[in-house]
Amino acid sequence: MFNHPDYSKNFDDDGREERTGTLLTASAHIITAVIGSGVLSLAWAIAQLGWIADPVCLIAFSLITWFTSILLAECYRSPDPITGKRNYTYTDAVRANLGGVKIQLCGIAQYANLVGVTIGYTITVSISMAAVQRSNCFHKFGHGDHCYVSTYYYTVIFAVIQIFLCQIPNFHKLSWLSIVAAVMSFAYSSIGIGLSIAKVAEPHHHARTTLTGVTVGVDVSGAEKVWRTFQALGNIAFAYAFSNVLVEIQDTLKSSPPENKVMKKASTGGVATTTLFYVLCGLAGYAAFGNDAPGNFLTGFGFYEPFWLIDFANICVTVHLVGAYQVFVQPLFAFVEKWCSNKWPERGYITTDHMINLPCCGEHPFNWFRLVWRTLYVMATALLAMIFPFFNEFVGFIGALSFYPLTVYFRIEMYITRAKIPKYSATWIWLKVLSWGCLVVSLVAMAGSLQGLALSVKSYKPFKIQQ
């Protein structure tokens, strides 16, 4: 294999298929992963925190995510960031730089988060698809009509689509899907901003906004204010939940120019672009709805007209999350299939690919194990999305669960180890303070989201059409 005359053209230095990713495709993957369902809840988050605290929190989360992403870009190769051995996954990077029990802790955090995000995206897509039907119903029968719509049918439709897309062999084949998804994310974010500005410009617009968000004694009780504030922090953290696939995105890049340099540029551009959209969406949405902002500002029906534009925005959400689901689920698939191949190497149905000819697509690798287990996984996430379809509470919980370990802790610990920063030095102290501060934020955000989930579960009846 290594003596093949065309080896240098077809394979990389590690013997794997030649990577073809560029700054454009990496940026598309990042934007696809970052601008997801989290942006839809930012108007609600600002309503809980107010004009001052929420923009500060958004910028703070953005800067922390950008800073730690720059640190993580240096960990793709070890020990040298340019010529060292490649780390194909986040867990591989932790193994090369930290080792010990932290490998298992990172794996648990990463893959639990991937599962949670795919469930969250399934919930979001079903709500957005149902919102299209409700929007047409309101347009036809008037805003006073109940227009009850079940999201379960749309969950099944989304699951069927994902079952087909999940047969894409690996993450490197998804560049086209991410570019389409990134365009969709810009589209529905821009529509949401435009609709919000138009609503603010309406005559006699009287949305009540405050510097500190929802008012105790008027909108909520004191206890509710505290819990909602904590949950809003979780929602903001979820909005930046792309940390768990960053190494996998870097593994799609060509080796020249160096992957770490390209990834730093992609991370800087991706985080800056998404933060701009986040601030605009959140502030415009809060100005439009005030302290009564819905949990999802495109499906909460603060907007009714033009109904076709609202339909288009929700279709864009759906198309985007179809691609984003794949960006997040492919690393999980790769992990499980690699583990099974190592565990049972003699099982041909696990380790052997068969080439089949598909109309208009040419030859495509087919594997029985991949077909069965990926199908079962999509069905399981769809079922959980049907049982727990709570948008704000679920995204807040997943954001709180993943932000500290994946976005902050492991990245800082790897940097301290690689840079050999002396213990108790000024740099070591401020990095530790940053880490501990983010831990506190994650814990209170998780507490708020769990409290919201508990309240929602009490009044919820699974598989019933909700008002």
Q: What's the total helix number?
A: 15
Give the N-terminus to C-terminus distance in angstroms.
62 Å
Mean pLDDT: 82
- Tell me the helix content: 55-70%
Number of strands: 4
Pairing-aware structural class of the strands and helices?
mainly alpha
Estimate the global geometry from the Cα principal axes: globular
Largest sheet: 2 strands, antiparallel
Rg, alpha carbons: 23 Å
Order of helices and strands: HHHEEHHHHHHHHHEEHHH
Strand content: under 5%
Task: Report the uncertain regions.
Answer: 1-8
Q: Taking strands numbered 1, 2, ... along the chain, how are they ordered across the largest sheet? A: 1-2
Structure report:
- The strands form 2 sheets. The chain has a two-stranded antiparallel sheet. A two-stranded antiparallel ribbon has the order 3-4.
- A hairpin with a 3-residue loop joins strand 3 and strand 4.
- The chain is built from 15 helices and 4 strands.
- By secondary structure, the chain is mostly helical.
Structural key phrases:
single chain; 467 residues; mainly alpha; two-stranded antiparallel sheet; 15 helices; 3% strand; disordered N terminus
Q: Brief overview, please?
A:
The chain has helices at residues 7-10, 23-34, 42-73, 90-97, 101-141, 152-165, 175-200, 222-239, 246-250, 259-289, 307-343, 348-351, 368-387, 391-419, 426-458; strands at residues 77-78, 85-86, 354-358, 362-366.
